[in-house]
């Protein structure tokens, strides 16, 4: 029978154990091992059955067992100790509180997905898990962050694999009552509702769920409420489920509804309304328009409000592929903007924010990344290489400037160590190194021997093997009407065989099937009698991605070959719960994207934190941290004549590395059976990389390099009733209008001889027309450096020229002079340019205006 309605009946926890409910209600349990141990102690089997989800667990646990524990003074005291520790954790001063004044009041962090725990499946992959790790690290550091997202009734999707290898998607509906959520309510108990005007005189309403993530509150907007028309109830049905209008509605709700929810939250809690807004990818870009609308309501013009809003906004781009960016039909966006959605905003002002440079307005899509970059004065990519790629990819927004001047910096992603470090490793560090801080533990210390660490790694591998067998048996039963799985399923994988992990979403660039370039060679690697290898693979293809599903099918069918199936497995339904045992259980973590399409990649970081060595294309984070001690680089064959040849070359290199380098090192054992060379690398990986790859490091960087400057800048332009913002807007408009008449008429040089030498001085005298601008409005610069055949200045340096009156030929042209020293030998080139200058601009390129000598 199929029930017509389902709900969760929460267990009645005896009052003596109320601490358990308080602990279950804050997701800190998801990264706090002592709290997990407390729950596990109640009923270890039930704890595992509930997939370590305290709320599901408390709903399931035998009432008699709870009664018994309620009278166990030791247990009651233990639970209360943990509860007190949680209360201390959420209230004591932490790193951020040591920064003193001049820090942001509140930072609002917007993301379309959040991966915090398997128990709250509101993520699809890396972007969401990163967001979850960001919140957890912000909590640990005491950063006053509040997060905003959507509550998707079916989350992403859960994956099953049919016997023929084809991916099947299921969308089990989540019941908010069974999740660690509470409705945001007004003092009188009524739920807060945010409302957006949508076309045809309708309204879209959403309630607001609150999630406690340590010290951080996450607000999730949910449209599945009776106040909505049936179709509008579905707006938050699934994560990345629909295209076009459905997706636009989600993003309008996230951005605009999110800011409205924050207002209510701020009023109700007394917490300061955010002074910094961070968009994790472009999906939440509409938040800027909602804030502009509010400023207009307070009397500012659009351009003035834009300056105010930009100053406090941070935009993080995550994709180096234009196809990965959300683009909407302009007419559709216009229809929404014309429906009274954003009071005070003329759609004619808002629509250009989404224009794609170089495309005629009528033909341009409404591009969310372009809007994000225009609405944020502070922007970054997520690894050094991705920063570089982003500066090129978006360079057309700052025409006339070289890519390295594009104002997009980078902060390399990190992963939350307490979440991603296996408890066995944590225990070892606590016992032997005297610290639970695995990120900064001295892993090279002799207090831990190779043999001990090796044995802990084996335990983690065994745990993965057992988990894989359980999952495959359950998947078999699921696909064969409850039939018991055949014997071989209970024999897959071996806890003593070199284990390579490979799990990812399945967009084409990640090349799930690169390893199948030469299937027989891979088969030989897997079944090598002396140095066998096993692969654990997982990943979901987007439901609309048929090509991705074909890749999965090829891999699954390969893994079904009877002689291989115990050495290579595809585990269905990759999620955080699986990831928890997968990363620690691997000896090698493999990643073979098409360079440079992996913006950062975080799975390899999580593996490294558990002592796995990386085997990866030099892309994303690995381009910064690759070293012999940390793993192996798969050489990139980007000079190959075509993609097929490139795949072939890179796959061959991959096989060679596994056959000749990796397996040899792994199976080269001392008399105790320990691979000492291997363990040296494991220890160096843990020692060198853990402190670097942590989300702590990442969030500190965000605070210091982006949040703090953004808050300061917002305060500056917002002072005195936003007077500086008004002046800046007026100045920007004036400069833009005047710019066509700004140019460098000619440049005279002197000082160097026919054959210049290092140390010679070059004197410059530039004649510059400024139209009606004054010398205060501009900077005249000489840009110089190496210049070879391609007419570009490399490693350009910039020096200011100084005003030296007006030219005596026309009395209007201004003269600028300066001297540079030729301090490097080789081909030299320079040019002179005029750029706008204002104390409230953060970068030379900011306005995309430049007039260079021709
Ligand atoms: C870390 C993680 C990802 C992201 O991995 P990438 O290397 O960035 O592709 C995706 N899914 C899950 C479950 C993860 O834990």
TrEMBL record:
Q: Which NCBIfam families match?
A: more_P_ylases (TIGR02094)
Q: Does the keyword Glycosyltransferase apply?
A: yes
Enumerate the UniProt keywords alphabetically: Allosteric enzyme, Carbohydrate metabolism, Glycosyltransferase, Pyridoxal phosphate, Transferase
Name the reaction it catalyses: [(1->4)-alpha-D-glucosyl](n) + phosphate = [(1->4)-alpha-D-glucosyl](n-1) + alpha-D-glucose 1-phosphate
Give the lineage: Bacteria, Bacillati, Actinomycetota, Actinomycetes, Micrococcales
What is stated as this protein's family in its record? Answer: Belongs to the glycogen phosphorylase family.
Function of the molecule: Phosphorylase is an important allosteric enzyme in carbohydrate metabolism. Enzymes from different sources differ in their regulatory mechanisms and in their natural substrates. However, all known phosphorylases share catalytic and structural properties.
Start and end of every Rhodanese domain?
A: 257-293
The highest taxon in the source lineage is Bacteria
The protein, known as: glycogen phosphorylase
Give the EC number(s) under which this enzyme is classified: 2.4.1.1
Do you know which Pfam families this protein is assigned to?
DUF3417, Phosphorylase
Identify which cofactors the protein needs according to its UniProt entry: pyridoxal 5'-phosphate
Gene field:
glgP
């Amino acid at each position: 029978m199929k029930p017509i309605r389902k709900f969760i009946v929460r267990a009645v926890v005896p009052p003596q154990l109320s601490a358990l409910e308080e602990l279950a209600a804050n997701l800190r349990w998801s990264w706090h091992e002592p709290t997990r141990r407390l729950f596990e102690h109640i009923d270890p089997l039930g704890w595992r059955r509930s997939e370590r989800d305290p709320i599901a667990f408390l709903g399931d646990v035998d009432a008699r067992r709870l009664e018994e524990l309620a009278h166990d003074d030791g247990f009651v005291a233990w639970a209360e100790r943990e509860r007190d520790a949680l209360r201390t954790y959420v209230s004591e001063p932490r790193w951020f509180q040591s920064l003193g004044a001049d820090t942001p009041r509140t930072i609002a962090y917007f993301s379309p997905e959040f991966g915090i725990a398997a128990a709250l499946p509101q993520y699809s992959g890396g972007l969401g898990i990163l967001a979850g790790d960001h919140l957890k690290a912000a909590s640990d550091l005491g950063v006053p962050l509040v997060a905003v997202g959507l509550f998707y009734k079916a989350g992403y999707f859960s994956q099953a694999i049919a016997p023929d290898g084809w991916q099947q998607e299921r969308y089990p509906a989540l019941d908010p009552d069974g999740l660690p959520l509470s409705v945001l309510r007004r003092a009188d108990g009524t739920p807060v509702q945010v409302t957006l005007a949508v076309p045809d005189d309708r309204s879209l309403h959403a309630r607001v769920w609150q999630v406690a993530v340590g010290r951080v509150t996450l607000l999730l907007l949910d449209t599945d409420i009776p106040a909505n028309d049936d179709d509008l109830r579905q707006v938050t049905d699934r994560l990345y489920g629909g295209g076009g209008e459905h997706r636009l509605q989600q993003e309008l709700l996230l951005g605009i509804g999110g800011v409205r929810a924050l207002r209510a939250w701020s009023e109700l809690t007394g917490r300061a309304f955010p002074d910094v807004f961070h968009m994790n990818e472009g999906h939440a870009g509409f938040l800027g328009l909602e804030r502009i609308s509010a400023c207009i309501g307070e009397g500012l013009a659009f351009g003035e409000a834009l300056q105010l809003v930009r100053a406090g906004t941070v935009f993080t781009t995550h994709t180096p592929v234009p196809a990965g960016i959300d683009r909407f039909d302009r007419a559709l966006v216009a229809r929404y903007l014309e429906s009274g959605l954003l009071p005070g905003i003329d759609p004619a002002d808002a629509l250009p924010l989404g224009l794609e440079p170089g495309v005629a307005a009528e033909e341009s899509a409404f591009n969310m990344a372009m809007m994000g970059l225009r609405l944020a004065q502070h922007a970054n990519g997520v690894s050094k290489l991705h920063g570089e790629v982003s500066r090129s990819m978006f360079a057309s927004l700052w025409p006339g400037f070289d890519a390295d001047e594009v104002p997009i910096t980078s902060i390399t992603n990190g992963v939350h160590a307490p979440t991603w470090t296996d408890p066995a490793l944590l225990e070892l560090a606590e016992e032997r190194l005297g610290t639970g801080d695995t990120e900064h533990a001295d892993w090279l210390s002799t207090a831990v021997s190779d043999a001990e660490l090796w044995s802990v790694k084996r335990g983690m591998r065994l745990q993965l093997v057992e988990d894989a067998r359980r999952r495959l048996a359950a998947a078999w039963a699921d696909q064969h009407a409850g039939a018991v799985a055949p014997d071989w399923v209970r024999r897959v994988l071996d806890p003593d065989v070199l284990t390579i992990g490979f799990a990812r979403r399945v967009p084409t660039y990640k090349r799930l099937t690169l390893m199948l370039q030469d299937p027989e060679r891979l088969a030989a690697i897997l079944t090598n009698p002396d140095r066998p290898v096993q692969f654990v693979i997982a990943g979901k293809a987007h439901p609309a991605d048929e090509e991705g599903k074909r890749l999965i099918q090829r891999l699954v069918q390969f893994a079904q070959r009877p002689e291989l199936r115990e050495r290579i497995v595809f585990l269905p339904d990759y999620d955080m719960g699986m990831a928890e045992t997968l990363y620690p259980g691997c000896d090698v973590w493999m990643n073979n994207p098409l360079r440079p399409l992996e913006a950062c990649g975080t799975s390899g970081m999580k593996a490294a934190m558990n002592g796995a060595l990386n085997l990866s294309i030099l892309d994303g984070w690995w381009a910064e941290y690759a070293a012999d001690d940390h793993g192996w680089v798969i050489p990139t064959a980007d000079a190959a004549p075509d993609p097929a040849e490139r795949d072939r070359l890179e796959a061959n290199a991959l096989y060679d590395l596994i056959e000749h380098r990796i397996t040899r090192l792994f199976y080269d054992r001392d008399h105790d059976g320990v691979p000492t060379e291997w363990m040296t690398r494991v220890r160096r990986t843990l020692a060198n990389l853990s402190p670097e790859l942590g989300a702590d490091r990442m969030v500190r960087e965000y605070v210091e390099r982006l949040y703090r400057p953004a808050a300061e800048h917002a305060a500056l332009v917002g002072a005195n009733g936003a007077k500086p913002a008004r002046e800046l807007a007026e100045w920007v408009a004036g400069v833009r209008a005047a710019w066509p008449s700004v140019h460098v008429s000619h440049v005279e040089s002197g000082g160097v001889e026919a054959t210049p030498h290092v140390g010679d001085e070059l004197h410059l005298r530039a004649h510059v027309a400024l139209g009606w601008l004054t010398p205060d409005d501009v900077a005249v610069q000489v840009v110089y450096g190496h210049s070879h055949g391609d007419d570009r200045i490399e490693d350009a340096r910039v020096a200011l020229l100084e005003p030296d009156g007006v030219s005596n030929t026309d009395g209007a042209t201004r003269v600028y002079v300066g001297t540079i020293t030729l301090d490097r030998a080789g081909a030299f080139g320079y040019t002179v340019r005029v750029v706008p200058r204002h104390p409230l601009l953060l970068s030379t390129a900011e306005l995309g205006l430049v007039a260079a000598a021709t």
